[in-house]
Please model this.
Amino acid sequence: MKILAIDTSCDDTSVAVTEGRRILSNEKYSQILIHEKWGGVVPNLSKRAHEERIDSVIERGLKKANTTIEDIDYIAVTYGPGLAIALGVGIEKAKALSKEHGKKLIAVNHMEGHIYSCFAQNSKGNPERPMNFPYLVLLVSGGHTELVMFKDHLQYEVIGKTVDDAVGEALDKGARVIMNEQVYPGGPLIEKLAQDGDKDAFDLPRPKVRAQDLDFSYSGLKTALLYTVQEMDEEIRIKNMSSLAASYQEAAFHALIIKLRRAMKKYNIVNIAVGGGVAANEYLRKIIRSEVRKVDGEVCFPTNKDLNGDNAAMIGIVAHYKAMNNEFVEDLDSFDREARAEL
Ligand code: KG4
Ligand code: ZN
Model:
């Protein structure tokens, strides 16, 4: 069963062809160069760029997979969560293809996609990675920080989430403060700076670690960083950029580890999956691996670097399980985006 999947939830125009968990192609056109000078995603520019690129990315996706639209069984598209006017571009295109070629449409939640990105395979079916439910999933992206019980295919329960900013958003905003510049995305910049810094140099608050629930909060940490930097002379800030980044990253990730540890204990689950853009961070991977090793558990991350951030292959993989469940969009005309969709 071949699926053509589209994701335009934020700043990547992504198209993939998948078959089960296997990725036959996973193409994207990134808009980072358009948005970076504004220090974040500019919605109108994003919409226009998606509109301009989507046809050529679809063409590339089909070509790389060595297939044609006639050979595709189903179309899949992200319906949310994400940036409303960006989501709309992918949805309209998916609906049009679906009508024109008489293929059923499958609607996928973007965060479901990030979960399944940990179980994606290449075109030859590697890695095998059998799925041993249940998993405890940590989702860390630009808009979400969630702990999810992944009970079985397509069955999720959100057991903890951020009450304010997401961890990726906190890293993006933090980078702008530390570097005193409009930069985007900030996560990779903080990771790079932090490599040369001292993570104990600045005593930043560890968000919400004492609360007994499984929720997260990043607004206090962000404010603390802002105050710390505001008190510095420009010269001192420049000298301390690496250590500011290392201390900030440490505080942000420490909160993730504490809650992950608490959830593993509470639910007695040692099979962990970590998805979302922030899962690209090598330091985060290292500290999660060492945490999971302590309980003889197993952790899986997205199976290659193209799967860390937004991509359409993860959407196609979810769609496969939805198709097996007969979950199709019933009425194409009334099907619409849901910018605030939840799992
Ligand atoms: O999943 P994603 O690509 O888009 C959303 O669905 O939000 O996540 C984007 C987020 C951004 O906040 C970005 O700064 C962060 O992922 N990110 C990273 C790294 N690469 C991307 N954060 C930390 N370290 C990285 N290497
Ligand atoms: Zn995402």
Remarks:
- Strands lie at 2-7, 12-19, 22-30, 74-80, 104-109, 135-140, 145-152, 155-161, 271-275, 298-300.
- The mean pLDDT is 96.
- The CA atoms of residues 329 and 335 lie 7 Å apart.
